[in-house]
Amino acid sequence: MDIILNKNRGWYSLDNAAKIYPAITNARSSYVFRVAVNLKEDIKPEILQQAIIESRRRFPTMFVKLKKGLFWYYLESNGKMPLLKPEGPFLGHHIDKTTNNGYLFCFYYYRNRIALEVFHSLCDGGSAIELLKSVVFHYFQLQGKALDSEGLVITKEQAPDNTEIEDSFIKNYAKQKRAKSPVKKAYHVKSKKMPLGVGNGVINGKLSAKEFVALSKKSQATVTQYLVANLIYAIAQAYGPRIPRKRPINVSIPVNLRKFFNSNSLRNFTLFFHTSVYHHPGLTFDEVLGIVKESFQTELTQEKMQQTLNANVSAEKNMALRLTPLFLKKLALSLVANTLGSNLETCAMSNIGVVKIPSGMKPLIQDFEFNLPPENKLAFGIGVITFEDEMNVCFCRSIVSNEVERFFFSRLASLGLKVSVESNLREEVV
Amino acid sequence: MKYCPHCQVQVLTETDKCPLCHQALNPNDEKGVVSFPPYSKRRNRWRKIVRATSISSATVILASILVNIFTWTGHAWSMIVTAGVLYVWLCGLITFRKATLLGVKLMSHSIGLTALLVIINIFSTNVSEASLTWAATYAIPFIDILFIAIINILMIAKKHTMRDFLISQFALSIIGFAPLVLALVGFANPMSMSIAAAIISGVTIIGCFLFAKKIVISELARKFHV
Questions:
Q1: Which of the residues A10, A255, B194, B220 could staple to A77 if both were Cys, CB 3.0 to 4.6 A apart?
Q2: How far apart, in whole angstroms, are the C-alpha atoms of residue B155 and residue B102?
Q3: Domain of B11?
């Protein structure tokens, strides 16, 4: 372990995806996402704190602080104590480094829930889940439960691997073809925003994974395709008359590149593609699903991902950009994020997929949650995560209205799916 | 568990209304749980302090400029008031900002104080007789020496946090050569303080490389990586 730290001189440059986040955070966009696990018993904070501390040496790229250089931000090993706090009322809020010992993540507990909130510069959802699983595994071990990792959890006994700390964007960059699929400027939901300081509205919908898979199969679609189509259809139903004809409903879908490029990286290794649907008065769900399926077939290919990765990394490798001082780079990056990011998206939906844990842990865990807070121009973010038969679709919104969530879940319920919802009822305090 | 017949969903949260359609739920159904910690208003005292000091600073500056203009005697004293208020405001905020490193705070004070003294020197006489004599001869080199010495002492006393001071110390040490440059172009006379500041700056840079070469090189690699 120490060999790895020395080799990396105790610091890491930010990976390709991470570079942009410190430059574009603002009061409305924290770029802090949250993964959480609900156990079958209440949390014991002292033991959980111990489990977090013991995970420190196993995850060298996570237990770091963000520092400013002249040209780029970078991550530096953090010797301070990682903190465990009682969960507060603000989900996905900025992580204040002065009250968090400089860490870019924070563990929270509430009743039977352990939540991990992470600033996106540190890692993506897939890596955050690995840290959460590992901490929960050690939490159970510290309580005297004999568990076998079965190769499904990163344990503190294993030494960190060099492949876990690599920047997989750089590793898989090829100079050859680079291109990004053209995306039209998207429709943005215009609705009354939650006042600053009130936080985001959260609605989690709990579904049966088996029922949902059966429903998607009936339409010859994958789970993600069906979810995206249902989301677009819900937006169309909620805001239909207000959507201009020339502005498509664009849903940004993060893709875990580890599957495409055989990577073990515990940093960011995700790219996005968009699926676009133009609204018209007679729009049907089947029509939306057809468009979504087609966009998955054309965009979600190894070749397309390689081209997008090449385009993103080549921009980072541009010498003029590299030599631009950080304060100027921040201006340029926020402009780029606006033009090539939020301008092109109506919202984002990320499906982490099925969380696999050792069989010994399964009886101790109820379900997982994944919240993707909204950004500046995007009214909501949607995170989806599945554990056993529990599929959680978590909406996080910056607007008061929850019409999209209503159409989304009530359509699924009307098709015979058993849907349970929970909410932080934030609209009631506005 | 409560059930909303309009949305056809079960409601897990303790509430009287459906979280989706906001229609009333059957009060006789089993109560849900408090799914999330209850809302409490977040207080941001720091933002209030920044806002209050910014408004009062701007008011004082504007008032002094107006009084100076309407009672003009050839002496731009409002520039001194402006510089003083800006120094207290900017450096005050930096001093109390928890996220700022101590080295950066000290460096900011050094630069701020230098700027303030230069402005006092220039504007303490009539505009037609403005000069930089005592600031360039004594004040600037003295402030450089003082802050370089303070940071050196802190670096020696807190060896484990040396890395946090290095870049500020390097920046200050480079600025420490400025009085000598000013003296060489004729702004300072005698040159003794300027030479002393340059020597201390040079010794500090060489000392850092001699006694903490690894840390210096590693820190420079981090800060200047492209």
A1: A10
A2: 11
A3: 1-40
What is the number of domains present in chain B? 3
Identify from B161, B222, B223 which residue to disrupt to test chain A contact, counting A C-beta atoms within 10 A and taking the largest count: B222
Residue A340 or residue B198, greater confidence: B198
- The structure tokens listed for B113 are 């104080």
At A9 the pLDDT is: 66
Which residue is closest to A320 within chain B, CA to CA? B226
Q: Cβ contacts (< 8 Å) between A394 and chain B: which residues?
A: none
* Residues in chain A where the model's pLDDT stays below 50: 1-6
Which amino acid is it at A20?
I
Contacts B13 to A, Cβ<8 Å: 421-423, 425
Strands A105-110 and A84-86, sheet pairing = parallel
Which comes out higher in pLDDT, residue A5 or B4? B4
HEC readout, A282-349 = CCCHHHHHHHHHHHHHHHCCHHHHHHHHHHHHHHHHCHHHHCCCHHHHHHHHHHHHHHHCHHHCCEEE
B66 to chain A, any CB pair closer than 8 A? The answer is no
Among A90, A322, A421, select the one facing B226 at the smallest CB separation.
A322
Give the CATH fold of the A201-429 domain. Chloramphenicol Acetyltransferase (3.30.559)
Q: Looking at the complex, report in whole angstroms how far the Cα of residue B173 sits from the nearest Cα belonging to chain A.
A: 18
Q: Tens of pLDDT along B80-91?
A: 999 999 999 988
A2-171: in CATH 3.30.559.10: yes
Q: Cβ contacts (< 8 Å) between A422 and chain B: which residues?
A: 11-13, 19, 32, 35-36
Whether B36 and A90 lie within 8 Å, measured CB to CB: no
Q: How far apart are CA A430 and CA A296, in angstroms?
A: 38
> Is the whole model's pTM more than 0.95, yes or no?
no
CA distance B178 to chain A (A): 22
Q: Which residue of A has its CA nearest to B21?
A: A406
pLDDT of residue A175: 83
